[in-house]
Amino acid sequence: ISGYSLVIQARDSGTPPLSSSVTVNVDISDVNDNSPVFTPANYTAVIQENKPVGTSILQLVVTDKDSFHNGPPFTFTILTGNEEEEFTLDPHGVLRSAVIFKHMVATEYVLCVQAKDSGKPQQVSHTYVQVRVIEESIHKPTAIPLEIFIVTMEDDFPGGVIGKIHATDQDVYDVLTYTLRAEQKSLFKVNSHDGKIIALGGLDNGKYVLNVSVSDGRFQVPIDVVVHVEQLLQEMLQNTVTIRFENVSPEDFVGLHMHGLRRTLRNAVLSQKQDSLHIISIQPVAGGSQLDMLFAVQTHAGGFYKPAYLIQKLSNARRHLENVIRISAILEKNCSGLDCQEQHCEQSLSIDSHSLMTYSTARISFVCPRFYRSVRCMC
């Protein structure tokens, strides 16, 4: 307990008795009676041979139960095991290489490290660090080409994570880093540690080919990343049809079915090869395992097929479509829960272009806006 607050009252013996009170704060001063604590108690680390001088090997973690003026900053010292000065230890507890290690010269070092706190008198503790020197990388990283499809409303892309590069390396201790060509950083970024691709706001319609590479410190490998950006027209929303699929997650749909379904749909509903099929959004149905896919078809002249025409085409081709994926329903109007006379209802569709959903797999990523339906009975 670091302190107490007491209210003390003095009361006299007169008639009537009179009194007054005062608050007394008692602070408990800290005594430096706790040593620093290493977490974990001892460390093991590896470094590959031929790494440059200054390579980070390990970050020491130290805590102290005393108050702040009796704890950090800590003073770190290598007591034993560093007689040839192969290592340095900075004030933040980062152990670095001071030489270029060779696996044939030595395969293991054991260091005794001391941490001293800032109290008076100072308290100390010790840990042992085992450092193994392993052979340098012999395998190049391997990465899967990534294709990203982004659907957004006209000039209204907010930016965000649009996919992730999947890369592996057969060298167990290799740490992979990702880089993007400098001149492309005005539109995209790549997280150097995990390969996540971030698009900045305001992307224009079109195709972008990103020059991304992955490195294990010795080998650098290029990765094919292609980004397709499609901007929706307001007229599309008035001519959409929804196909509802059974028992499929968005990621499985994107990774396993979307490419084949797009090809089958084109064959089923397009009258001419110049017509364009636009997948506007995919979205899980609340409370189940169903998935809605929203799409529209644009004619080569620039107009759009009416939903009734598309539904007729889809109904005729449903058997072929189900060779790709199981369909629950083909929806033009969704009047579920409404008791409309003669079944007449009106549906409106709205797109939230600032609420993007990213469905990412190893090879394909699909980024689309969230959509909302509202229905009402017509008079």
TrEMBL record:
SUPFAM superfamilies xref list: Cadherin-like
Pfam families: Cadherin
Species of the source: Upupa epops (Eurasian hoopoe)
SMART domains assigned: CA (SM00112)
Protein name as annotated: FAT3 protein
GO cellular component terms, semicolon-separated: plasma membrane
One record GO biological process: homophilic cell adhesion via plasma membrane adhesion molecules
Domain Cadherin as annotated: residue spans: 4-38, 39-143, 154-245
Gene Ontology molecular-function annotations: calcium ion binding
Signal peptide: none
Keywords tagged on the record: Calcium, Membrane, Repeat, Transmembrane, Transmembrane helix
